[in-house]
Specification:
Elements: H1 9-13, H2 17-38, H3 43-52, H4 66-72, H5 83-92, E1 96-98, E2 104-106, H6 108-118, H7 121-129, H8 134-150
Antiparallel strand pairs: 1-2
C-alpha cells in the first residue's frame, strides 16, 4: 500500500478505506494504551472501573462478574484483553473487591482512581486531534458512518 503523504487527491480517492481505517485503529489504540501505561494503568483496567462505577457507565453501581463485564465491553475489547487478569490486578490494588458470587465491586479508592484516570483523557484526545478542526473530524465520522451504512455494518442509534 502506498503511504506516501504526497499523493494527489485523485490518488488518495483511489486508496482503500479499510486499509486506512485499520492502520488508524491500530495506531490510535497503541498510542492511547502507551499514554495510559505511562500513567500507571491499562485501558482494560480503566474500562473495568468505568463499567462498575455508578458515577460513570454503570446505571446502579451493582457488581458484575467478569463474564458480564466482557459482554458489556464486547464492542471495544481487543482479543488480547484479559479481564480476569486485569480485575485481579485491581483487586490487589484495593480498587475492586470480589464477593462470594464472584461479582466485582468498585471500592471508593477505585472510584477515586477512575476519576483521576478520566482527567487524563482530554490531553490524550488533544494530542490525537492536534491540527484537526472539529469540522474536519465531524466530516470524517459522518463519512465513516455512511460507509458503514453502505455495507450494512453497525451504526450508532
Amino acid at each position: 500500500m502506498t503511504t506516501n503523504q504526497h499523493l494527489s487527491d485523485a490518488e488518495l480517492a483511489a486508496q482503500p478505506a479499510a486499509y486506512w481505517t485499520g492502520m488508524a485503529y491500530e495506531a490510535l489504540i497503541a498510542f492511547t494504551r502507551a499514554r495510559q501505561a505511562e500513567l500507571g494503568f491499562t485501558q482494560p483496567q480503566y474500562w473495568l472501573l468505568r463499567n462498575l462505577s455508578k458515577d460513570d457507565l454503570s446505571p446502579d453501581g451493582a457488581g458484575m462478574t467478569v463474564a458480564e463485564l466482557q459482554r458489556a465491553m464486547r464492542s471495544y475489547l481487543r482479543h488480547e484483553d484479559d479481564l480476569a487478569a486485569e480485575s485481579r490486578g485491581l483487586v490487589e490494588r484495593g480498587w475492586l473487591t470480589r464477593d462470594a458470587d464472584d461479582r466485582l465491586w468498585i471500592t471508593p479508592e477505585g472510584d477515586e482512581a477512575r476519576a483521576a484516570f478520566k482527567r487524563h483523557a482530554p490531553s490524550i484526545r488533544a494530542r490525537i486531534h492536534e491540527g484537526i478542526t472539529d469540522a474536519d473530524y465531524v466530516t470524517t465520522l459522518k463519512v465513516l458512518q455512511r460507509m458503514l451504512r453502505n455495507v450494512g455494518g453497525p451504526t450508532p442509534a
